[in-house]
Amino acid sequence: MSNYNIFPDEFLWGGATAANQYEGGYNQGGKGPALVDVLPSGKDRYDVMSGKLDYKKLDESTEYPGRVAVDGYSHWEEDIDYMIEMGFRVYRFSISWSRIFPLGTEKTPNTEGLKFYEKIIDKLNKNNIEPLVTICHFDIPLNLIEQYGSWRNREVIQFYLKYCKTLFNYFKGKVKYWITFNEINMLFHLPFMGAGIVFSENENQMEVKYQVAHNELVASALATKMAHEIDSNNQIGCMLAAGQYYPYSSKPEDVFDALDKNRDIFFFGDIQVRGKYPNYAKKKLQELNIEIKTEPEDEAILKKYPVDFVSFSYYSSRLTSADENVGEKTSGNVIHSLRNKYLETSEWGWQIDPLGLRTTLNALYERYEKPLFIVENGLGAKDKLNGDGSIDDDYRIEYLSRHIAVMRDAIVKDGVELIGYTSWGCIDLISASTGQMSKRYGYVYVDKDDEGKGSLKRYKKKSFYWYKKVIETNGENLEFYPK
């Protein structure tokens, strides 16, 4: 019987970044242009991310924060040293597709790009930190968008699989945990950021989204097949932007609306884990008069190659009603919600709901009966750098402590099988949704502002020492100890 105060001995504690928000180095090491390199800052960002505005129409003076980000390309070794000092057991990061295949269509990979990630992975392994690699995190070579229309074109599956094969072979025996696509359901909300989709005029946007989803789902299944064939030790996961919908009231219509909204989250997981389109999705496609172009072998591919684990991000729960005119809406989050009067909100309007994480863990585990992995969770907040180089982020400590406590409850009281926890943005990075630097998540502060100015010098926050203690005690003690 597990001790209630302690996580499983093998629990993987760590943090997460992604190349598109952390790495920068857009024109270094043979890297080609990528999706992130055309995501602007400012007022046009949302319209570009949602596929409504073609990035080619942006003004010449436009700033692109992802091109430099926090220059993880040059600072990766220093940043991993911080992770080692905190005692990380796992580090989730993504590989930039265009750093391996600059155009996406080359016959051979960019060796310099592979060697860059090899240095990172070797340093992690040397220090007993498990690499958790996201193969595609809101990322695709720009050439595949311009020449092929990105994931709307089935040919991109083959380019993706060549990229996967290169990674699986090159890093065989060095990487065990892989994620095929980050927050795959985000393509329904931000089609360009999620999958490189720019809509043309009078196009059936919903049909395009489902076609893109199908192509990525087939690609994910084939990548899973390939990974297992190359190395039987490989563990492949899907990744969902999760967070349960609550009904606004006990009115039956509200309860059913919450059930229906949760299906939008489950749709991808149902296919990647259960191996087939669920009946509710088939009915929805019929009602929308959407016909997905498929190949005869697709059904068997999806069925035969499910993922090994389910990873997900959790930042907040959501509230919904069948009545569109009821309640007040929240601001900030891409996935819209009504305001829940029982919850506090962050500076960016995200509702803070630790118990909702336990609810989400149980919902996913009961549905899929696969090991779970929390690969994103955290509080975006404005941090103040004090004159002595310290940062007092007690608000972040409180947020994370409350969420980790309910993770423990889910494991010990509910029997949820949870592999590990990688809090988001362990090193400060730029926000995916806003492009801002001021929306910080990390244990390590990076000196840079929203205008891109700053030394990029790193500073340890108060939460750095707190998380170090959490890992040292394997989650037994979540209170703060001074350094």
From TrEMBL:
<feature type="active site" description="Nucleophile">
    <location>
        <position position="376"/>
    </location>
</feature>
<keyword id="KW-0326">Glycosidase</keyword>
<dbReference type="InterPro" id="IPR017853">
    <property type="entry name" value="GH"/>
</dbReference>
<comment type="similarity">
    <text>Belongs to the glycosyl hydrolase 1 family.</text>
</comment>
<dbReference type="InterPro" id="IPR001360">
    <property type="entry name" value="Glyco_hydro_1"/>
</dbReference>
<dbReference type="GO" id="GO:0016052">
    <property type="term" value="P:carbohydrate catabolic process"/>
</dbReference>
<dbReference type="InterPro" id="IPR033132">
    <property type="entry name" value="GH_1_N_CS"/>
</dbReference>
<dbReference type="GO" id="GO:0005829">
    <property type="term" value="C:cytosol"/>
</dbReference>
<protein>
    <submittedName>
        <fullName>6-phospho-beta-glucosidase</fullName>
    </submittedName>
</protein>
<dbReference type="Pfam" id="PF00232">
    <property type="entry name" value="Glyco_hydro_1"/>
</dbReference>
<dbReference type="GO" id="GO:0008422">
    <property type="term" value="F:beta-glucosidase activity"/>
</dbReference>
<keyword id="KW-0378">Hydrolase</keyword>
<dbReference type="InterPro" id="IPR018120">
    <property type="entry name" value="Glyco_hydro_1_AS"/>
</dbReference>
